[in-house]
Amino acid sequence: MNIPPIFAFTDCKDENAITRLKARLTVLFVGSQINAVGINSDLEASGCILDTLDALRISEEPAIIIGNLAPRADKHYKNGAPFYVGRIGEVVIVATKTCFTLIHKLRLIEKINETDVETVCKVFLPAEEAERIANSQFRSFEYVPRLARWAYDKENIPSTESEVLTLTENKIWWVDNFGNCKTTFTEIEIKDRVVDDMISLKVHDTKIEIPFYKKLADVPKEELGFIIGSSGYGNNRFAEIVKQGGNASLELNIIPGTKIE
User: What is the spatial distance between Cα 141 and Cα 67, in angstroms, rounded to a whole number?
Assistant: First the structure.
């Protein structure tokens, strides 16, 4: 078996769920280095997937990225949102649809393939097992690792081609341990908004102005700044709201998912 590294981002993030996911991936990809990280939302997963792709781009070696955000609250589907397969170079991505939005924003992917759990499993597994997995309460454990294996092996997986969703509004997608707030504004978008070295934004329906600086080192001590951060892909990076020597997230009361205009 080939042994690509695996990077999984999942909202099933307690120790039991993470351990089970890693164990299942371990037996399907013997010898693989498996990294599983708990996240809180599809937007966080989308940004993490993009950053992982960026980290992988210095090599053409294959890899697998998983994004699991499929809450049962979405009643459009029988048992949670479907999982999709996408490919960027030698990297296979298995995730729910909204996990592809930031990849799409940077024009890395246009089409993904929607899969139905029971339909796919019936091709590769006995019918009784396929039905059990289709009704599982933990599809990211029962189905996604298998789907990743089949996709990586380039099996003929029943699927329907689909357009990637477009991000319709800008938000904070991640807050790091320093309190720096990663936005979904690209460098080009944010530079178009700079007037007299200031960025005007609306956060929590309140208009604020923050000075724009090229990099974190240029932000004066104890002051807020809008900078071009490290997240993104290649030369296309996302802007961040930071506070030099402080915590921008706490000062502005913003968390991942906070809308910014």
Answer: 12
CATH among 2.30.30.90, 3.60.20.30, 3.40.50.10790, 1.10.730.10 for 6-163: 3.40.50.10790
Low-confidence spans in the chain with pLDDT less than 50: none
CATH number of the 172-252 domain: 2.40.30.90
Euclidean distance between CA atoms 55 and 35, whole angstroms: 14
**In this predicted model, what pLDDT tens digit does every residue of 176-212 receive, in sequence order?**
999 999 999 999 998 888 999 999 999 988 899 999 9
> How much is the pLDDT for 42?
92
Give the integer Cα–Cα distance in Å for 252 and 261: 14
Question: Hey, which residues does 114 pair with through a beta bridge?
Answer: 84, 160
Q: Which sequence spans correspond to the domains of the chain?
A: 6-163, 172-252
Conformational region of residue 179, where left means phi above 0, alpha means psi within -120 to 50, and beta covers everything else:
left
pLDDT at 79: 63
- Please check whether residue 20 is in contact with residue 27, taking contact to mean a CB–CB distance below 8 angstroms: no
From residue 131, alpha-carbon distances to 9, 48, 85, 143, 230 in Å are 26, 32, 21, 11, 44
